[in-house]
Every structure is written in C-alpha cells, then in structure tokens.
Amino acid sequence: MSTKPSLVKVGVFGSSHGIKGFIKVFTEGETLRSLKAPTSCTVQDPLGKTATIDIESIKSNGNHYLVKIKGYDTPETVVKYRGFSLLWKKEDLPKPNDGEIYTEDLIGLETISKETKTPLGYKVTDVIDNPAHPILECKPTSGEGETILVPFLNRFVGDWNLEGKTLEIIQWEQWFEV
C-alpha cells in the first residue's frame, strides 16, 4: 500500500497579473475558496514533472483566483508556471457536497447502461480537461476495441457508485454511431 498522498488537480495556472508577480489560476467549483495562505502545494508541468511551491496569498478575482508564489515577484518570473496544474492533497480538500464528486474519483469505474444496468465492457481510464466540460475516456476492459469519449454531462452520464465501482452511461449505443 502506498503512503504517497493522493493529489487532485484543483486548477490551472494562466497568465501573470499585475506587476507584483501574481498569476491567475482557473478552476471549477469552490475548492480554492477553502485554501488558506501561506501554504505549500504541488504543481505539475505539462510533461508530468512535479515540484513543490509556497503560496504567499490567494484571492478570488472574478472567474479566477490570483496567487502569489513565494520568490516570484515580477510578471516575468512567475510566467514560468503558465499551463502548470495546481495539485492538492485529496485528504486536505473539502468533502464534496451530495451529488458532487472529484472527477479523479471516476477513474477506474466500470461503465454500466443506465437503462438496463448491464455492464458495457468499458472502464473510465482518464478524465480529460475541456473548457466546456470534462470528457471521460473509456477503454475496453478486455483490451480490445476502440476508446470511447463521453462528455461528463447529465444527459450522457447517470449516477456513480464509488463503493460498487460503477458509472451509469445514458443511451450508450449512440457512442458507437458517431
């Protein structure tokens, strides 16, 4: 059993903001609202390499947050984090409300038909970030067949059962007609 903490992506760094070294962080939901600075957290570059940074301050600013990273005091220095993911220890995150889930928890769930409750022979292998909504990557459990991409929207995805490790897909047949 691994003792490494489970990290959850809570945001993506955008462009620098102002002249004092702030950087924008775009996120869905209210996860960053509970973050209290100063604190340390993990960042991940687009190639998957991780590092630890110290956040001096964080504040809400419209549809994003502004973060001040210790040791980065100008727009020219902080821009190196543009496109990096902000990761947080899952155990330190607020518990999701009823009907909500951290999308990382969907990875590994077996797909079943919402209509018939029968297994579909696919498993969620990744959750792809998309500006409009997350997209579930589903691969065959047998290793044979094509990967299916399903928008994580109520009209395509039903209920999930983390204990039973299942995820309902609505009108599954339509994904093979595309």
From TrEMBL:
InterPro entries: PRC_barrel-like_sf, PRC_RimM, RimM, RimM_N, RimM_N_sf, Transl_B-barrel_sf. The keyword Cytoplasm applies. GO terms for biological process: ribosomal small subunit biogenesis; rRNA processing. Keywords: Chaperone, Cytoplasm, Ribosome biogenesis, rRNA processing. It comes from the Bacteria. Residues 10-91 form the RimM N-terminal domain. GO terms for cellular component: cytoplasm; ribosome. Transmembrane segments: none annotated. The keyword ATP-binding does not apply. Binds ribosomal protein uS19. An accessory protein needed during the final step in the assembly of 30S ribosomal subunit, possibly for assembly of the head region. Essential for efficient processing of 16S rRNA. May be needed both before and after RbfA during the maturation of 16S rRNA. It has affinity for free ribosomal 30S subunits but not for 70S ribosomes. This is Ribosome maturation factor RimM. It comes from Leptospira ellinghausenii.
